[in-house]
Amino acid sequence: MKTENEVITQIEKALEASENRKMRLANESFRNIYASVHKHPLLLWNNPRVYLLGKAFMVMYHSDLFESEEQNIELAHLSLFYLQRSEDLCKDGFISDSTILFETLRIQAVLFKTCEDCYIESVATFYQPHNHNVNADEKHGSVLLATRVMLFVLYSVLVEITDSFDGFKGDAYLDDICKAIELENPTISNKLLKEGNNVRKLLYTYCKAKIAKMDFNFMS
Fold first, then answer.
1. pLDDT in tens, 38-55
2. What is the number of structural domains in the chain?
3. CB 179 within 8 A of CB 149
4. Residue 30 domain-assigned?
């Protein structure tokens, strides 16, 4: 197994290659990172740079690393898993660099904006009865609820950024997303914001449970 510094270097090189459109080189490294995580899911778990894994998995998703829908959904969940871990480390005082918290939340906002469909089935299970087999109407209703609530999951991240940093630190992309949401939803209640936060926490718990069992099927 590589050292943590070696893994971080590999991630940084893969992200740099992707940014420079050297996709063959980037994807080769991404596949190695993906394989490493399958063998060692807690890779970089206590490392201040764990957010880089979250960023890498999001970029893998957008790089069409796999043709399988199931694997692409997995990439989005793994991205969230490591980003939330980074956020926990920041909030618990293990990471004092506020730049890392901002970057972690920024990537998470981009993730929910660009990959929200990947979480619909998982979130839908939160709204389904657990005392009997779910029928077709219940499943349909839960999917509609999940689709609706994902907007407020994203908004909860944006609110957290503005609360933590008194704005978006000049990030025009985040500012535009926030303004668009507020324009289309001028009366977002505290209840909806709380629901968005709760779903974020449930998604993280859901991912941790899957990974603890080494069950990377995020479609069920």
1. 999 999 999 999 999 999
2. 1
3. no
4. yes
**Which band of pLDDT confidence, cut at 50, 70 and 90, is reported for residue 220?**
low
Q: Which domain holds residue 104?
A: 4-212
What residue has token string 């080189």? 25
Q: What is the largest CA-CA distance in the chain?
A: 51
